Structures are given as structure tokens and as C-alpha cells.
Amino acid sequence: MRGGGALVVLALASGACRSHGSSSTSTATATATATPCPSDLDARTADARDLYPEARTAVVDASFLFVDPDHGPLFDEATRFAPRVLRALRHDRMAPRPLCPASVYLFASHTHFVAHCGKRHYVADATGPDELGVYDPIRREIVVDLSPGRTHVFSIAHELCHVLMDQDFAAPRWFRECVCTQYEAPSLSADDTEIHGLPNRRYDARFHDAAAAGSPDARPSALFGMSDAAFAARGDADPARFLLHYATARATCEWADERGALWPWYRAWRDDAALADGTAAFTHAAGMAPAEADAPWRAWVSLQPVR
């Protein structure tokens, strides 16, 4: 079960542009810092100034250059929120490894956000159909549209999770999204030692109907061994299946987290490459095989609100 102190609930509104996700072409591993970083903070600052000469900037956690091209009202709140997320994710969760610098562009204007996405030509798997934000692991850039308002600040947590996880664990895409999509709607303890996900818009009617019907696309056991291409439903006659996979992955990690199994599963899989697709690590952490988890997971999903 979840531990720690009182949790501060942080809600999330739907947003804009293209979606999250580490690219399937990303080769980040736990030893990524053994090679030189592609750019330092000075180079990233210069790049940001070339794009937006009047932008405000701030360095967070000595590794993230936050950029505010629009002088938006939520920039200061975002730079206060980000260190809390990073502290929580590193507390008995992801290894506190050195990070190569990354840039975080926060737009107060949806129009400017879309224009920026177009100019940067982000890698294919950094974009998708659910229109929340971008993390491009090749450029090492996060982009978030804050025009919907304050609640959208919290989607930054999802993207920061991707940066830390890419440095920590060369996981398949379904597991990267399983872990990081939780933090689109995060709850943080007052001392920043606990972070958990809350049910959010991904648990829509289609997801609930598919889970209740026992759809092969909406059960934890379907995720194990799933390729990045299958997860993204590339070439699928029903491209919306990607959103069903996304919701199933998110719900699997939220369910595991409520049982106290998520981070033991994560660490066991990360630390032993012989565990292959994560089945053995999950079984050890959850006390049941993925196929055995389908029924209790389905019962848990039925109790979550339809969004």
C-alpha cells in the first residue's frame, strides 16, 4: 500500500499539441552518461536565445533549462513544481543518475506552441494523437502548452519522468508510458518523498467498456512483450487502439502502485537484464503472474470514474 505523509492532489486538464513518449529510436540506458552529453546548458541557452531572444530562462536541478518565450503567468509556478517532482521520482524510485542537460519550453500561447512543434520537427514517437505535450529524446527537449491554465502545469511531471527514466532504464515504450503517464495527474506528499498517479481522462468510456468486456487490448497481460510499434498501433486499421494501449498501460502501473508493487517491479526489471520482458519482475513484485492479474485489475478498473 502507499506510504508517506499527506498527499497534495494536483489535477490535470486536457491540453494541446502532440503527445508524450520517448522515441522508439532512443538508445538511452543507465550508462548513458559514460559518453559526452550532446550539449551543455550554455549551448542550450544560446539555442533558446536564437529562437526567442526575449524569452525568460531559469535553470532547474542543474540539468534543465526552462524557457518562457511568451512571458506567461505560470512559468514561475512551473519552475517551483519541477524540483518537487524530480525529488519524489528519485526518492526510492529511479536511480539519482547524472543527467545530460535538457530544455523545457513552456508556452502560454497555443498558436506559438504549435508553431514551435512544427519548426523543431520532433521525432515521430515524440508525437501522437492525444495532444498533451512533447518530449523528444533526440533533441532532449520538453515542450508543454500552458494556455489551458494552471492545471496543465502538472503535465510537466510526465515529461520529466521520461527524461529521468530514459537515463535510468532502457525499457520498452509501453512500460515507459505505464510509469510516466501516471504523473499527468500526480499527487505529491508535503515532503516530496511520495508521488502517485490519480485517475484521469485516459479512463474514458471506450477504455472502461474494453476492460469490462475482457478485450485483448485492455488487460495487463497484453502489454508484456508488446513491441513499440504494436503499442503505438502503427499501421493499424484502428489507430485509436493506441489510446486504448496507453490507458491500459497507465492503469496497470496505477494499480500496481496502489499495491506497493510498482517500484519493486521497476527496480527488479531495471537491475536484471535477464528478466527480459518484465514478466518475472512483475510476478515477484505483485505476487501473481500478469495473466493472474487481469481479473483483479479489471475489478479495480470498474471502480475508477469514467472520464
What is the CA-CA span between the terminal residues? 25 Å
Biggest β-sheet, characterized?
5 strands, mixed
* Topology order in helix (H) and strand (E) letters: EHEEHEHEEHHEEHHHHHH
| Largest sheet: spatial strand order | 2-3-4-6-5
**What general form does the structure show?**
globular
Helix content: 25-40%
Radius of gyration: 18 Å
The total beta strand count reads: 8
pLDDT averaged residue by residue: 86
Approximately what portion of the residues adopt beta-strand conformation? 5-15%
Structural class, by secondary structure, is: alpha/beta
- Pick out the low-confidence regions: 1-16, 18-33, 126-130
Count of helical segments? 11
Folded structure, characterized:
The two termini are 25 Å apart. Residues 1-16, 18-33 and 126-130 have low confidence and may be disordered. The strands form 2 sheets. A 5-stranded mixed sheet has the order 2-3-4-6-5, sandwiched between helices. Strands 1-7-8 form a 3-stranded antiparallel sheet, covered by helices on one side. The longest helix is centred in the C-terminal third of the chain and has 18 residues, at 241-258. It is 39% helix and 11% strand. The protein is of the alpha/beta class. β3 (64-68), α2 and β4 (102-107) form a beta-alpha-beta unit. It has helices at 41-51, 75-90, 110-120, 155-168, 173-180, 205-212, 228-231, 241-258, 262-271, 279-286, 290-302; strands spanning 7-9, 56-60, 64-68, 102-107, 133-136, 141-145, 186-189, 195-197. It is globular. The protein has 11 helices and 8 strands.
